[in-house]
Amino acid sequence: MGRTVREVLAAGGGLMALDTARAAELLATAWPAAAAAAEPQASAGDLTRYTREPGLAVMPVRGLLTPNSALLERYLGWATYRGIAEACADLAADDAVSAVVVEFDTPGGYTLGIEDAVTALRDLAAVKPVHALAAPLAASAGYWLASQARELVMTPRAAVGSIGVAVTAAANVAPGAASGVQLFDFTSRHARAKWPDPATEDGKAEIRRGLDRTEARFHAAVAEGRGIAPEDLAARLSVSDDPEDGGAVFEAAEALARGLADRIETRAAFYARLRAAHAPAPRKGLARGARALAAAARAKARL
């Protein structure tokens, strides 16, 4: 029986910025090992990471976000941070693209590698407008990315947030416990923090130290991207008077009230607005030619 995405990602470890409740279905997806085995030379080199129309490019960011899994990008259509960064570089240099939409449908993913993608989005936004559309979800690492856009639009009933970092750690168990396995971890003398033991207070403190350090970078990026004073952000994200009660996901109206998004708009209205703003104007010479052809057709019809 094949492994699930959850099993493979858990084996790899690493900090996650992930809304696990909304990620449940994706985590249960079968790992595409059989497809990869059938095409062993597959890579991300020829993937289509965005589509183009006159004046506008659309880059979807979907699925569980990983640093550079060409396997998940190719066979499941899930975005990677390397893919986002490479697409942003291409679009920044494309003179035919005057604006970019990044359309989100993701519960988040790994934190490793995300800051390269954040930097690439900022660099792209420095040379042309970048519009984020939560349709219907930009949570956790997804919101980390979406917050860097010039505007963040939510479709009705969309959700954003889950701003925080988590990690899954396993404590050792004795023989006869539910797992039936006894594990022993060893580290060198001066690497006590390498594998902190979550069954001890010292281990818990070390795990939280790593989480808080990554959360601080997450908060700083959101504050800068959304133009929120860093010292005010935690209170805006809290569901109570205690700034430590953050990490929730908010639907569109509440997200706007908290300054986490800019407007609510249907997907059709969003694209109609951007196409009207960024589609290239008709060339005057071509317009005169079209009028001449139309006049000739009318004259012929009168004969």
From TrEMBL:
GO BP, sorted A to Z: proteolysis
Family recorded in the similarity comment: Belongs to the peptidase S49 family.
Protein name: Peptidase, S49 family
SUPFAM superfamilies: ClpP/crotonase (SSF52096)
The keyword Nuclease is assigned to this record: no
Alphabetized GO MF terms: aminopeptidase activity
Peptidase S49 domain sequence ranges: 124-276
Gene3D superfamilies: 2-enoyl-CoA Hydratase, Chain A, domain 1
UniProt-listed Pfam families: Peptidase_S49 (PF01343)
Transmembrane segments: none
InterPro entries: ClpP/crotonase-like_dom_sf, Peptidase_S49
Entry EC number(s): 3.4.11.-
Keyword Protease on entry: yes
Keywords: Aminopeptidase, Hydrolase, Protease
